[in-house]
Amino acid sequence: MNDATKKFVIASGNEEKLREISRILDNFDCEIIPQSKLGIASVEETGTTFVDNAMIKARHATTESGLPAIADDSGLMVDALNGKPGIYSARYAGIGVSDDDNIDKLLAELRNVRSEQRSAHFNCAVVWVSPDDSIEPLVAEGQWHGQILTERRGRGGFGYDSIFFDPILKRSAAEMSNKEKNLQSHRGKAFRYLCELLRKSLSS
Fold first, then answer.
1. How far is C-alpha 184 from the geometric centre of its chain's CA atoms?
2. CATH class of the domain whose range is 7-203
3. What are the structural domain ranges in the chain?
4. Of 5, 141, 161, 168, whose CA is between 20 and 30 Å from 176?
5. SS3 assignment for 151-199
6. Exposed, middle or buried by CB within 10 Å (0-12, 13-18, 19+), for 82?
7. Which residue numbers are catalytic?
């Protein structure tokens, strides 16, 4: 992997997510640059799947920067709600709302659902694209299965972490250390797989 391919734009403006991605990629020999540092604005997510939206964001960032770009799209899928909020997780309660607003709406919709029926999973799709299309886009996905709690637990994390319960660690995502969460999470799994694909693709 040469120096040019070691530098990536991360197509996200979410500070919490950027910190999490930085921790996940800490052992990967690369330089990551948030798109905001290059003056690149967010692009509208018009896709119908997580992969679609990740691809839209990555292509926008690489076009604007001239550098390889990585983007992810992730969300919470609740079985009792037929997979909602899904790709609309970040704006479930409306545009520009807070994490608490989204959580409040989800808990209200599940208020009459018993604990054994509150299964859910996080899904994450990560895409890497090159600016000149000399290398095919790389796509990696990861999932994290658990249950939705009836109330918030823990003060860490972001998004829906405080109401997502991991049955293996017996804690909410917001009660975990960064290391524990990254080992278990959908985003950690997807980014680690992407790193494997990158090593293979860029060394060949």
1. 13
2. alpha beta
3. 7-203
4. 141
5. CCCCCCCCCCHHHEEECCCCEEHHHCCHHHHHHHCHHHHHHHHHHHHHH
6. exposed
7. 73
